[in-house]
Design brief:
mainly alpha
Length: 142
């Protein structure tokens, strides 16, 4: 019997349910199931990638995403635990030193201020002097 063929007896019902009602129920169930599945997948990936020890470490996040995609039966927590146990943590960058960062930031902030002075002020004067000498531009006016 084909999909469009009438059932025995000539009515357009399946198991006592009108076909239109059946089709509407199937469409609703499919839509609801897809939404629930998408929500579950999002929560699973968020748990795997956002777990302590994984979050913020690009290598571990990449490994967690790869494992989660390739092992759909593992929970997000299981993926994260496996990655933390088996993937080395990234070494912090040398520039991550807070004192070095603060020193660089303060030096740059001083240059951005009117009248900010440091060793680059001498270089600026030397460069301007060379420019004026080569172009014949007048020295400071005013």
């Amino acid at each position: 019997m084909s999909k469009d063929a009438q059932p025995a007896g000539g009515s357009n019902t399946e198991a006592g349910i009108p076909k239109a009602d059946h089709d509407a129920a199937v469409a609703t169930a499919e839509k609801t199931g897809r939404a629930a599945g998408a929500q579950e997948a999002t929560e699973r990936l968020s748990a795997a990638i956002g777990a302590e020890g994984v979050k913020g470490d690009a290598g571990r996040m990449s490994a967690a995403l790869d494992l989660a995609v390739k092992s759909p039966g593992m929970s997000g927590a299981d993926v994260a635990a496996f990655v933390v146990a088996n993937v080395a943590a990234a070494k912090p960058a040398a520039s991550a030193d807070a004192a070095a960062y603060e020193k660089t930031r303060l030096a740059a902030a001083g240059l951005a201020q009117p009248g900010g002075k440091d060793a680059s002020q001498d270089a600026t004067s030397r460069i301007l002097g060379n420019y004026r000498a080569s172009t014949g531009a007048p020295a400071k006016q005013g």
